[in-house]
C-alpha cells in the first residue's frame, strides 16, 4: 500500500493575457510509508508546484493523486484540509513563525484543531516537542530572539507536533549555514525514523539531497530518477548557495568519501549537542514523544 501516489500528473496554468503554461508534465511518483525522497532542480523547474500537489494544496490539471490508495479528487476541499492537517507536515525555507507569539504558542497552534485529550494536553505536548528539538529551555522566547537555526527547529516542532505521516520540506536549509542546515536535516531524519513518517525534501544542495534514499531531478516539469544527486552537475545557484569556504561535493567516486564522513561527523556532533544522540527506544512507527497520531 502506498501512502501517496502521483500518476501522469500535469499542472497547467493560464496566466492573464498569456498562453497556457505547463509547469508539470507526466509526473509519476509513489511515496511509501517511511520513504525518503529528494527532489533537486533548478529555479523555476516546478519544484514548489510539485510540493503543493504532494501536500494536497492544489489538484492536478490532469492525472491522478491518491492518498492511502484513495483518489483525492473525490474529496471535498474541507476533507482534504482535514487530511492535510492530520497527516502532512510542511517545513519551508522561510520559517513562517507567527511573530509576537512565543515558541510554545507557535508549536501549540496546530493542536488547537485537535479534539479530546490531545486538545486539553496541547501545551504539554508542544513543550515536549520543543524539548525533543533541543529547545526545551526557550519555550517562552519570541521568534525574533531566536537564531535562524533555532527558528527552523521551532518550525520543525510545529510541523511535526501532530505526528504527520508525510513530511514535506521545501528548501528547509535554504536560509541556514551549512552546519546548521545539516543538523536541522539530521533532526528531521531522527523524528521521521522514530515515527515512521515518509519524507520528501526539495533542495538545491546535493549534500542535503544525498541524505535521502531515493533521488529525483525535476527539469522543466519532468521528473526523472537519478542515481546519486552528487554526481549531477551543480547549477550556478547550487554553487552560489554553498558557503564560500565549503568544498563542493565530490563529482566522481563512491559515497564513502572523506567529505561524506566530515558531514556525518558534523551532523553527529550537532545531534549530540541537541541531546538526541542516544539510541531511540521508541519502536519504529510509534508517534513522537507525547503526541497521539490521528488515524485518518
Ligand atoms: N500560478 C501561477 N501562474 C503562473 N505561473 C506560475 C504559477 N505558479 C508557478 N508558475 C511558474 O511555474 C514555474 C515553476 O514554479 P515553481 O515555483 O514551482 O518553481 P521552483 O522550481 O519551486 O523554483 P524555485 O527554485 O525558484 O523556488 C515558474 O516559472 C513560475 O513562474
Ligand atoms: Mg520553489
Q: Structural class given helices, strands, pairing?
A: alpha/beta
Q: What is the radius of gyration?
A: 19 Å
Number of domains: 1
Unreliable parts: 243-296
Heteromolecules bound: adenosine-5'-triphosphate, magnesium ion
Helix content: 25-40%
| CATH architectural grouping | 3-Layer(aba) Sandwich
- Helices, by number, come to 10
Distance between the termini: 15 Å
Explain what the structure shows:
The protein is of the alpha/beta class and 296 residues long. It has one domain (4-243, 256-273): Rossmann fold (3-Layer(aba) Sandwich). The chain contains ten helices and ten strands. A hairpin with a 2-residue loop joins β4 and β5 (70-71). The protein is globular and about 50 Å long. Bound molecules: adenosine-5'-triphosphate (ATP) and magnesium ion. Adenosine-5'-triphosphate is lined by residues 13, 15, 21, 23, 41, 43-49. Magnesium ion binds at residues 47-48.
List descriptors.
10 helices; 296 residues; 20% strand; alpha/beta; binds adenosine-5'-triphosphate; disordered C terminus; 6-stranded mixed β-sheet; 4-stranded antiparallel β-sheet
What can be said about this structure in brief?
The chain is an alpha/beta fold and 296 residues long. The chain contains ten helices and ten strands. The strands form two sheets. A six-stranded mixed β-sheet has the order 6-7-8-3-9-10. It has a four-stranded antiparallel β-sheet with strand order 2-1-4-5, covered by helices on one side.
How are the secondary structure elements laid out?
Elements: E1 4-13, E2 21-31, E3 36-40, H1 47-54, E4 62-67, E5 70-71, H2 77-87, E6 88-92, H3 103-108, H4 116-120, H5 122-132, H6 148-160, E7 166-170, H7 178-195, E8 198-202, H8 206-209, E9 214-219, E10 222-226, H9 236-241, H10 258-273
Parallel strand pairs: 3-8, 3-9, 6-7, 7-8
Antiparallel strand pairs: 1-2, 1-4, 4-5, 9-10
Helix pairs in contact: 5-6, 6-7, 7-10
Bound molecules: adenosine-5'-triphosphate and magnesium ion.
Amino acid at each position: 500500500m502506498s501512502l501517496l501516489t502521483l500518476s501522469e500528473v500535469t499542472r497547467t496554468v493560464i496566466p492573464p493575457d498569456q498562453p497556457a503554461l505547463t509547469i508539470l508534465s507526466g509526473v509519476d511518483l509513489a511515496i511509501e510509508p517511511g520513504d525518503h525522497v529528494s527532489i533537486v532542480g533548478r529555479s523555476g523547474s516546478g519544484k514548489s508546484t510539485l510540493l503543493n500537489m504532494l501536500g494536497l494544496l492544489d489538484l492536478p490539471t490532469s492525472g491522478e493523486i491518491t492518498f492511502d490508495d484513495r483518489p483525492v479528487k473525490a474529496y471535498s476541499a474541507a476533507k482534504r484540509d482535514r487530511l492535510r492537517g492530520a497527516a502532512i507536515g510542511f517545513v519551508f525555507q522561510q520559517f513562517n513563525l507567527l511573530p509576537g507569539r512565543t515558541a510554545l504558542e507557535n508549536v501549540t497552534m496546530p493542536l488547537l484543531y485537535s479534539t479530546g485529550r490531545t486538545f486539553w494536553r496541547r501545551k504539554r505536548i508542544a513543550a515536549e516537542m520543543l524539548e525533543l528539538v533541543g529547545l526545551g529551555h526557550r519555550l517562552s522566547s519570541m521568534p525574533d530572539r531566536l537564531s535562524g537555526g533555532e527558528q527552523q527547529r521551532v518550525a520543525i516542532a510545529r510541523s511535526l507536533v501532530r505526528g504527520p505521516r508525510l513530511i514535506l520540506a521545501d528548501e528547509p536549509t535554504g536560509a541556514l549555514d551549512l552546519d546548521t542546515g545539516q543538523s536541522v536535516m539530521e533532526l528531521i531524519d531522527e523524528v521521521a525514523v522514530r515515527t515512521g513518517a515518509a519524507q520528501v525534501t526539495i533542495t538545491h544542495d546535493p549534500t542535503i539531497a544525498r541524505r535521502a534514499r531515493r533521488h529525483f531531478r525535476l527539469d522543466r516539469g519532468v521528473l526523472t530518477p537519478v542515481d546519486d544527486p552528487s554526481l549531477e552537475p551543480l547549477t550556478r545557484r547550487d554553487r552560489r548557495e554553498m558557503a564560500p569556504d565549503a568544498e563542493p561535493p565530490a563529482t566522481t567516486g563512491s559515497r564513502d568519501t572523506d567529505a561524506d564522513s566530515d558531514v556525518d561527523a558534523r551532523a553527529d556532533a550537532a545531534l549530540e549537542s541537541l541531546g538526541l544522540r542516544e539510541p531511540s527506544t521508541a519502536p519504529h512507527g510509534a508517534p513522537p514523544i507525547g503526541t497521539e497520531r490521528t488515524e485518518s
